[in-house]
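HUMAN:
Just now I want nothing more than another pair of eyes on a protein record. I would be glad if you read both lines and explained how they fit together. I have put the entry right below:
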Amino acid sequence: MTGGSGLPDVAADLPLALGGGDSANEAGFTAIVHGYGKDSTVLDALSEYNGIGNENIGLYQETIARPFRSLVGDVSPGSDGLAALIFYTDTRKTDRTNGIVCRPGSLTHPAEIAAEALGYMEITNAQFAEKGYSDAPLSGIDPGILARNAGQDWTTEYTNRDLAVHTGTEAYHRGNRGCSHTPVRRSCRVLPVGAGAKDFERSRGSRSHRQMGRSPAA
């Protein structure tokens, strides 16, 4: 075996690893975290394998019914970060697979943020399905204080949150010790990790979401 560069062929690898046809995802995986970020080729491969839109296709077929969800992280600060998130959600309107965890300016690796958020979601679903994710702490996630102090946390500005709302996302501000951004665009789930509070939003399915509750004190 020799080393290489670039991205793997996820579209070809998924059926080899998880199965195809009526045996697709036969092991019943429900969550996927990867290290390829917002690469559209990887995201498209996951979305197509899982099933695009609201149709009974992919893992949503009645003879399979074993869909999964996937998250990536995002720490992009400033107006460029906001623009990138809007672009992400704007171009994935029929994607019911891939979500994104946003904490502008965090020093934590984006994949680690996604892994911790999705891990919490999975444990909660398995053990306390009725609980939801309200006030859920994500320990070890850097809240992006340096970026905020440098004026690069776009969630602190009302105009940015208003822009998010008017471009098909949701944004909300919580208290004076931290603020969270929660964009959701149709099938995409953009979850926040609040500064100090670290609460986040959950979405289930391609046309519904649940907004999380009040942030605890930092």
Summary: The beta strands are 31-33, 69-74, 98-102, 184-185, 188-192, 202-203, 209-210. The longest strand covers residues 69-74. Residues 171-218 have pLDDT under 50 and may be disordered. Residues 136 and 199 are 5 Å apart (CA to CA).
